[in-house]
Structures are given as structure tokens and as C-alpha cells.
Amino acid sequence: MHDAIVHPSGARMRWVELPGPDPARVYVHGLGATSAPYYAEVAAHPLLPRRRSLLIDLLGFGISDRPREFAYTLEAHAGALAAALEKAGVADAALIAHSMGGAVAIVLAARRPELVAHLVLVDANLDPYPPVPVPPGGSGIASYGEEEFVEGGWKEVRDRVGPHWWSTMRLADLRGLHRTAVSLARGTDPTMRELLVSLRMPRTYLHPEGGAPDDADGLRAAGVRVLSVPESGHNIMLDNPDTFARTLATLLP
């Protein structure tokens, strides 16, 4: 396990690293997740040529620290991730980022393009959304006030999301989880979609079959490859790891 101090409090981000040549691949998890359980099978898949691979956890999630002083916005996460990559000696990486992690990756690529040579978004959030109590397929975390969530709302979320998602969500700092969910619902300014279309590095958006992102044609017109992965849901890398790995092998050096 590797780590780097990324915050004035001394908080550390941690990651599991698979050895291999550069350029590195950096795998970023979604809301309430952690990278190793979601990506290990794909990162070590025989269909995917070996590269140095960092399966990294954002602050507040998984094996990384949970600083109370951290803002847990998408922008703050992107800044901490940039600091971790710098300290790991990573540049010109392929960033493979799922769901909420995709929103963080877009902000990072826009702010620090020298760190990101390829951007692969896995059913990532591109637009703000109203924090309705139970969004389709979502957790409803952003519909709670912070204290309401910390003092008991998390139990309702636990029961709603089910044992698979909760198996990693339970590792998250409750305040960090809530603040991240609120920031994701609020989105960025410019929006994640606007930032994505303005980027110049190769960009790909992977989505489940039948679940293309809104305005996929607009993304394609901006040079974003939009690809469907069959026999998968939101967690594409878990649902169809063979096709996911094969697709990455065609996209990345």
C-alpha cells in the first residue's frame, strides 16, 4: 500500500499499486465506493497490457484518511488527487474514473491537463441534479441535511442501497460522504459536461447498453468517444470485466 500527504492537516490518500511501465493508469472510484474492490480484476486482467496502475481512494473513502477540515467538494477532491499523483511521480496518466469519480476526474483534467493524457469516464456524472429523496439508481444522500444524515439518515440510505453498495459505503466518513454527495448534486461551474467538451486530450465515455448519456451526439461532436458496454449496469467494470478490459485495451497505450 502507498500513501501521500495531500492536505495541511496531514491527511493521507492511499492506494494499491500494481507494478508496470509508465505511462501509469489511475483508477478512481465512485460515491461510497473504494477503488481496489471495483477495479482489481480489470487492472490485472490478461486482456489489458500491463502498466503501472494506481487504485486510489479519495479522501473520506476506503483506506484514505477522513480529515474533518476537508471541504469534500468535487474541486477539493480533484486538488487532493492532483497532489497525490504529483507525489507518486505520475504524469500523462490514463485516468479511468467511475460515476462521481468521473466528475472529479473531469475537474482534475481541466485544471491539471499535464497529469492526464487519456480520460476514460465510466457512466460518470456530467450534470447537476436536484437532490430528490430517491433518484433512480442513486442513494438520495444529498436530500438530507448534514446533521440529519450523520445522526441517523445514513441508516435509511444503508437500507435503500443494499448490501453490495453498502459493503464499501460503510467505510466512508459520514460527513465526507454527505458533503461529496451534495457537491455532486450541485455540480461544478462550468458544469462537468462543459468542462469535458472543452478538454483536448483523448476522452471516452463508457455507458451500459441502453443507458447512453444525455446529449450523446453533442459529446461526440466535441470529440468524445461514446461507447456502449453490453451486459452491464452502472458498475460496468464489475458486471462485464472482460469486455471492459478489452475496451480499455483498445483505447489506451
TrEMBL record:
> Which Pfam family is an annotated match for this chain, by its short name?
Abhydrolase_1
- On whether Isomerase is a keyword of this UniProt record, the answer is no
Q: Which GO terms describe its molecular function?
A: hydrolase activity
Its keywords, alphabetically, are: Hydrolase
- The AB hydrolase-1 domain sits at 26-194
Q: Does the keyword Hydrolase apply?
A: yes
Question: Per its UniProt record, what InterPro entries does this chain match?
Answer: AB_hydrolase_1 (IPR000073), AB_hydrolase_fold (IPR029058), AB_hydrolase_sf (IPR050266)
What is one cellular component GO term in this UniProt entry? Answer: membrane
Its protein name is: Pimeloyl-ACP methyl ester carboxylesterase
Q: Native species of this protein?
A: Nonomuraea wenchangensis
